[in-house]
């Protein structure tokens, strides 16, 4: 291995960053701010290049979608860290038990050390910057492993990072599944992984060998529920917007919709109307995204073939061609009332296929959601605030929107994360800072204190004082 190869070798990079952390274990705010400002400049000065690289990787992703779903929230995330970081890193006061006064206590956030971030292909920029902003604000060094399925973006971002950061601060690793597996087994001080539940289990197992704390942002089948009486056109518009962004290749996309039984046909008609209004040129529309590659395209076509073989009713939402095999472009399709035995009902869809299922009572819809693995998101459409609150209290999900989809993920003041099979841990804003800090508890004893009364040999006074303290 020559010197250049070694500089890109994950274990070597980790050691470089560990050594740098040992030399400066608690960077002042000025250093952290400088790193965040360089990251912001990297984003703002290279928007066009980033859009072009992601467009090339997808074989056709609208640049405006990259602006909306990646560049804008990435810039917002870094700006939020710049606004709040100095405040977040200050010691936080804590109460001392009255029996230990006049001692003092506080919590000191400190960097954990070196953070590893494993990034998926569907939003390669935002799912890098989201955790990275928190890691840098918290004073950590960071290694990023980008997906092999977005090679143009990976090469670009690796170069941009090398131009703006030293390898002892931030470095980018590329390569295939073998590199990713080795990366997750490195002894990081914290590891963030975004991807499928299946791979998340492997990452957690690998990290467990080093007792590395992990933040797992996984996926699952996030439901959209239309409550009785809610306007179907409004619900269809918001659900289809969330479903068709990035052609459904979004971990928090609505995976299926539950609709009052009497409204199913009307909802399907509204969904078709909304899809055609958003993409009037159908599959040829320049605002509609391609499926990332042939592998993912064939997986989705297999879901549709499985549904057709089962005799399901499939409703194509675009006019004109429904598929372009060469360009791996797939028009949106609704599966009407599919059985649970279908592959599309057992696995996360991650594409422009929307099962629509009927229910009779809201309690039935909630029971259906609860019978599935706990999802990353719940989208509840309802003008009845009490019923919406009831739904939140009776489901267990990673995050939720009322009368909307997706946008909870871009709120810097809200923690983003899953639960159970959809993930663990949170990040974004202060939540990301805390996740990648050690919140160190500190107790400072006062010069005058009563601890000497409670040391051996234990005299009768100790017993009387303990009896009194338990009553007060």
In words, what does this structure look like?
α5 (about 65-90) packs across α16. The strands form 4 sheets. The chain has a 7-stranded mixed sheet, sandwiched between helices. It has a 6-stranded mixed sheet with strand order 5-4-3-6-7-17, sandwiched between helices. Mean pLDDT is about 95; it is low at about 1-5. It has 2 domains: about 5-220 and about 425-440, Aldehyde Dehydrogenase, Chain A, domain 1; about 225-415, Aldehyde Dehydrogenase, Chain A, domain 2, CATH 3.40.309.10. The chain contains 17 helices and 18 strands. β8 (about 225), α10 (about 230-245) and β9 (about 255-260) form a beta-alpha-beta unit. By secondary structure, it is α/β, with parallel strands linked by helices.
The overall number of domains is 2
Shape descriptor? globular
Oligomeric category: single chain
Based on CA atoms alone, the radius of gyration comes out at 25 Å
Beta-strand level of the residues, as a percent range? 15-25%
Low-confidence runs: 1-6
- Largest pleated sheet: 7 strands, mixed
CATH hierarchy: architecture of the largest domain: 3-Layer(aba) Sandwich
Name the CATH class of the largest domain: Alpha Beta
**What is the count of β-strands?**
18
Structural class: alpha/beta
Distance between the termini: 69 Å
Mean pLDDT over all positions: 95
Helix content: 40-55%
Q: What count of helical segments does DSSP give?
A: 17
CATH topology of the largest domain: Aldehyde Dehydrogenase, Chain A, domain 1
CATH homologous superfamily classification of the largest domain: Aldehyde Dehydrogenase, Chain A, domain 1
């Amino acid at each position: 291995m020559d010197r250049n190869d070694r500089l890109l070798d994950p274990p070597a990079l980790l050691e470089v960053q560990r050594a740098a952390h040992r030399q400066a274990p608690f960077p002042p705010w000025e250093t952290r701010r400088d790193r965040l400002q360089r990251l912001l400049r990297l984003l703002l000065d290279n928007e066009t290049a980033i859009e072009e690289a992601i467009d090339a990787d997808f074989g056709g992703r609208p640049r405006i979608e990259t602006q909306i779903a990646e560049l804008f929230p990435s810039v917002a995330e870094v700006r939020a860290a710049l606004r709040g970081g100095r405040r977040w890193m200050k010691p936080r006061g804590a109460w001392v038990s009255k029996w230990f006064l006049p001692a003092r206590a506080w919590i000191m956030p400190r960097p954990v050390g070196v953070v590893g971030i494993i990034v998926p292909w569907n939003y390669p920029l935002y799912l890098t910057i989201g955790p990275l902003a928190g890691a840098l604000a918290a004073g950590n060094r960071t290694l990023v492993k980008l997906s092999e399925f977005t090679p143009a973006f990976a090469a670009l971002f690796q170069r941009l990072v090398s131009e703006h950061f030293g390898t002892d601060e931030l470095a980018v690793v590329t390569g295939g599944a073998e590199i990713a597996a080795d990366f997750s087994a490195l002894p990081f001080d914290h590891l963030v992984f975004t991807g499928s539940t299946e791979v998340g289990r492997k990452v957690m197992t690998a990290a467990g060998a080093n007792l590395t704390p992990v933040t797992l942002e996984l996926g699952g089948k996030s439901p959209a529920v239309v409550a009785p009486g809610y306007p179907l056109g409004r619900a269809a518009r918001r659900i289809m917007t969330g479903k068709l962004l990035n052609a459904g290749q979004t971990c928090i996309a609505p995976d299926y919709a539950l609709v009052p039984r009497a409204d199913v046909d009307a909802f399907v008609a509204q969904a078709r109307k909304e899809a055609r209004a958003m993409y009037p040129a159908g599959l040829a529309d320049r605002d509609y995204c391609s499926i990332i590659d042939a592998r993912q395209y064939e997986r989705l076509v297999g879901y549709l073939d499985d549904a057709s073989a089962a005799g399901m009713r499939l409703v194509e939402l675009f006019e004109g061609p429904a598929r372009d095999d060469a360009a791996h472009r797939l028009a949106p399709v609704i599966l009407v009332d599919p059985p649970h035995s279908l592959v599309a009902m057992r696995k996360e869809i991650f594409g422009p296929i929307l099962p629509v299922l009927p229910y009779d009572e809201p309690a039935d819809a909630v029971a259906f959601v609860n019978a599935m693995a706990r999802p990353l998101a719940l989208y509840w459409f309802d003008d009845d605030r009490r019923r919406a609150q009831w739904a939140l209290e009776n489901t267990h999900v990673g995050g939720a929107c009322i009368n909307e989809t997706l946008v909870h993920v871009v709120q810097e003041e809200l923690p983003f994360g899953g639960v159970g099979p959809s993930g663990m841990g949170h990040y974004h804003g202060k939540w990301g800072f805390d996740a990648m800090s050690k919140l160190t508890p500190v107790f400072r004893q006062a010069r005058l204190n009563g601890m000497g009364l409670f040391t051996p040999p234990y005299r009768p006074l100790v017993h009387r004082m303990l009896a009194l303290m338990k009553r007060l």
